[in-house]
Design brief:
By secondary structure, the chain is of the alpha/beta class. About 35% of the residues lie in helices and about 15% in strands. Helix 2 packs parallel to helix 9 and helix 3 packs parallel to helix 4.
Length: about 375
C-alpha cells in the first residue's frame, strides 16, 4: 500500500473477525475478560489500549510514514505528553509565529515547571542555530504557521537538529499527512491536531503524535497510559471514517483556496494576502519543495489595516461561519487577535505580524464561486 489514498482507506483497518464488518467496530468497553491473571488477547483496559483507537493509531502512523502512532484527547494533550519527556532546565526553541494555545501551554504551564522556551523567526536557519546551547533539547516548528502562513524549511531545521543531537518536532496540522510528511524530511516527531483536516467534519476533538524512534515512543506510550489523556472509541471511529476521504477533501480544499487567495490578492480593499500557494509568498519555493499542495488556510489584511473593517467583514459573511477551529468541510473565518491567538500578548503577536486587522480563513469544500461571492459581498460592506 504505497499510495496515500489506499493507505487512508485501508491502513490499520481489518474486517472484524467476528462478523466480517468492513468498518472497524466501536469497542465501547472499559475492560476486557482475561483467561487467567495477565493472560488476555492484547487488551486489558481501554485507557491503556482500545481496539478502535489501536486501528486509528496504526492508520495515522502509516499516513505519516512512521513506525509509531499515538492518539490523544486533543492536539494540546499530544503536545503536553511530548513536553513531559523533558526535565526542568531543558530548553526548547520554537517558531515565534504559532498557535495561541501552543504558546499558552509553553509559557503558562511548562515554563512554571522549569522548561525554558526561546521564540525566534525561522526565515533563516542561522537565527535558530544562534539560540542553541548546551541546554537545548528540541526545536519546535509549525509550517505553514498559524496564522501568518509562514513556511519553515523542515529539512534545514531537521539537519540542524541532527548536527546538534537534539530533537526536531513539527506541528503538521495545517498541511495534514496528505500534503506534507515531516518524518520523510528528517524530523523526529510529527504532531497533529486531528480535530482539524484529518478528522475534517468539525465533530471531534483529538490529537496525535507519530514518530520512528523506539525509545522515545516507549516513553510516550508510558505517558499516554499513565496520564490518561486518551480519546474514546466513538471519536476514534469518527476519525477513521473521516480519514477515508482525507485525500479527496484536501484536493478540494487546495483547489478552492488558491482561487480564493487569488481573488483576495486582486481585490482593491485587501492590503495583504498570506498563502504559500501564491508565487508572491516569500517562501513559496520552499513550500513547493516540501509540500504536495498548499492547503486550505489563508490569512489576509484589509486595506488600511483597521480592526473595525476586519470585524465588519467577518460578521458579514453568510457562508464563511465566524468560529474557532479550522479544517472542516465547511468554510470558517476568524479574528486571531481576539480568538485563536488572544493568549499571546499584543506586543508579541504584532512582532510576528498578527495585527488586529488580520483575518484567517479556513476554506472549505463548498462551490468556490459561492465562497468568492460571499467574500465579495462582505468586503463591499467596508
Amino acid at each position: 500500500m504505497s499510495k496515500f489514498g489506499t493507505k487512508a482507506i485501508h491502513a490499520g483497518a481489518e474486517p472484524d473477525s467476528a462478523t466480517g464488518a468492513i468498518m472497524t467496530p466501536i469497542y465501547q468497553t472499559s475492560t476486557y475478560i482475561q483467561n487467567a491473571p495477565g493472560e488476555h488477547k492484547g487488551y486489558e483496559y481501554s485507557r491503556t489500549l482500545n481496539p478502535t483507537r489501536h486501528a486509528l493509531e496504526k492508520n495515522l502512523a502509516a499516513l505519516e510514514n512512521g513506525n509509531y502512532g499515538l492518539a490523544f484527547s486533543s492536539g494540546l494533550a499530544a503536545m503536553d505528553a511530548l513536553l513531559k519527556t523533558f526535565k526542568p532546565g531543558d530548553e526548547i526553541i520554537s517558531s515565534n509565529d504559532l498557535y495561541g494555545g501552543s504558546y499558552r501551554l509553553f509559557t503558562k504551564i511548562f515554563s512554571d515547571l522549569g522548561l525554558k522556551f526561546r521564540f525566534v523567526e525561522m526565515d533563516e536557519i542561522s537565527k535558530v542555530e544562534s539560540l542553541i546551547n548546551a541546554y537545548t533539547k528540541m526545536i519546535w516548528i509549525e509550517t505553514p504557521t498559524n496564522p501568518m502562513m509562514n513556511i519553515i524549511d523542515i529539512k534545514a531545521v531537521s539537519n540542524l537538529a541532527i548536527k546538534h543531537n537534539i530533537l526536531s518536532a513539527v506541528d503538521n496540522t495545517f498541511s495534514s499527512p496528505y500534503l506534507q510528511n515531516p518524518l520523510d524530511l528528517g524530523a523526529d516527531v510529527v504532531v497533529h491536531s486531528i480535530t482539524k483536516f484529518i478528522a475534517g467534519h468539525s465533530d471531534v476533538v483529538m490529537g496525535a503524535i507519530v514518530l520512528n524512534d523506539d525509545t522515545l515512543a516507549n516513553k510516550l506510550y508510558f505517558i499516554q497510559n499513565s496520564c490518561g489523556a486518551v480519546p474514546g472509541p466513538q471519536d476514534c471511529f469518527l476519525v477513521l471514517r473521516g480519514i477515508k476521504t482525507l485525500h479527496v477533501r484536501m484536493d478540494r480544499h487546495c483547489q478552492n483556496a488558491i482561487q480564493v487567495a487569488s481573488f483576495l490578492k486582486n481585490h482593491p480593499k485587501v492590503e495583504s494576502v498570506f498563502y504559500p500557494g501564491l508565487s508572491s509568498h516569500p517562501n513559496h519555493e520552499v513550500a513547493v519543495s516540501q509540500m504536495n499542495d498548499f492547503g486550505g488556510m489563508i490569512s489576509f489584511i484589509t486595506k488600511g489595516n483597521r480592526i473595525e473593517d476586519a470585524k465588519k467583514v467577518i460578521t458579514s459573511t453568510k457562508i464563511f461561519s465566524l468560529a474557532e477551529s479550522l479544517g472542516g468541510v465547511e468554510s470558517l473565518c476568524g479574528h486571531p487577535a481576539t480568538m485563536t491567538h488572544a493568549a499571546i500578548p499584543k506586543e508579541e503577536r504584532e512582532k510576528s505580524g498578527v495585527v488586529d486587522a488580520l483575518i484567517r480563513l479556513s476554506v472549505g469544500i463548498e462551490d468556490v464561486e459561492d465562497l468568492i461571492e460571499d467574500l465579495s459581498q462582505a468586503l463591499e460592506k467596508i
